[in-house]
Design a protein that fits this description.
alpha/beta; 13 helices; 8-stranded parallel beta barrel; 8 strands; about 55% helix; single chain; about 300 residues
């Protein structure tokens, strides 16, 4: 299995240097990450929304090592909110944040991350949009869920992400579905040990369906994060059985993957949100995209062979 190998490489400084220095890397990265600055990504957002899509924006760069970097992350998101407000995009574009980027892994990180993310959530609410807290590796989740619960006291629309491959997630889903929150379900994109996570793809898919049913039958707003045609069809059927209208759930997919499917779902009347990342520290995000699907890795390798 190449996925775990690639995920391990996503944490390797040596591999970061090798991949970053490869001449063909940047053109391939652009498939998944359409810009390094807010000025470069805003035209992408405008184009997507003109085509009936919605967007969630992620400023990449979670592997920080200093408090000052956490403040810079906060300020980058506040700048993004300002640009969305000026263009009237608040209703179509939300934001996804990784709390590690806001200092969660540093000394006193829980309080630091909460202090940094709160003004972003507040600014987002002021322009009519929302923030979703991305899930990271399993050691960070108790902190993430606690911050999510704290933020929802003042900003109940704040979303969070759960990962189907973790054994704990069915219990998390039951709690969150009952709370009426916005919940994105994904398969999971971090290297997790067998003690806490399913390792077999078929088992992960089964867990995904079980958890999605919990969300659909609950009081919250499910966000189906998947490119898998079978899971998308199952999601539609579960929504129908739960009596949900088309605006009572949504699909989410990554920028650069199955773009025609984005448009097809939107044309059918579904809410379809494109997860769009930008920034200069793209390595970790890029490697997880390669690990998620062998076709992504083959695309990268083929590009390297073609260019050399």
């Amino acid at each position: 299995m190449l996925g775990p190998v690639i995920l391990a490489a996503s944490r390797s400084d040596k591999m970061r240097r090798i991949v970053s220095a490869a001449p063909v890397t940047k053109p391939v990265v652009n498939r998944f990450i359409p810009g390094e600055t807010v000025d470069q990504v805003i035209p992408i957002v405008e184009d997507l929304t003109r085509n009936g899509l919605e967007v969630t924006l992620d400023v990449v760069g979670e592997d920080i090592t200093a408090v000052e970097q956490s403040y810079a992350a906060r300020d980058a998101y506040l700048q993004l909110v300002g640009r969305l407000a000026a263009l009237g995009l608040g209703e179509k574009a939300e934001m996804s944040v990784k709390l590690s980027m806001f200092g969660q892994a540093l000394e006193g990180g829980h309080e630091l991350a909460l202090a940094n993310v709160r003004p972003v959530v507040e600014a987002a609410a002021a322009i009519g949009t929302t923030v979703t807290l991305d899930a990271e590796d399993h050691t960070t989740l108790d902190s993430m869920f606690a911050i999510h619960e704290e933020l929802r006291k003042d900003f109940p629309q704040t979303g969070c992400v759960i990962q189907a491959y973790l054994f704990r997630t069915e219990a998390d889903a039951r709690r969150l579905a009952a709370a009426g929150s916005r919940v994105r379900i994904v398969k999971g994109a971090y290297k997790e040990p067998a003690e806490v996570a399913y390792q077999d793809k078929a088992e992960i898919d089964k867990a995904y369906v079980r958890i999605l049913k919990i969300l659909m039958d609950g009081e919250g707003y499910p966000m189906i994060g998947s490119h898998d045609p079978r899971l998308i069809a199952i999601g539609q059927e579960l929504a129908r059985k739960a009596g949900r209208k088309l605006d009572e759930y949504e699909f989410q997919m990554l920028y650069g993957i199955r773009s025609e499917e984005h448009l097809r779902l939107a044309a059918e009347g579904h809410r379809m949100r494109v997860y769009t990342a930008y920034g200069t520290d793209w390595y970790g995000y890029f490697m997880r995209r390669l690990a998620e699907k062998p076709a992504n890795l083959l695309f990268f390798v083929r590009s390297m062979i073609t260019k050399n």
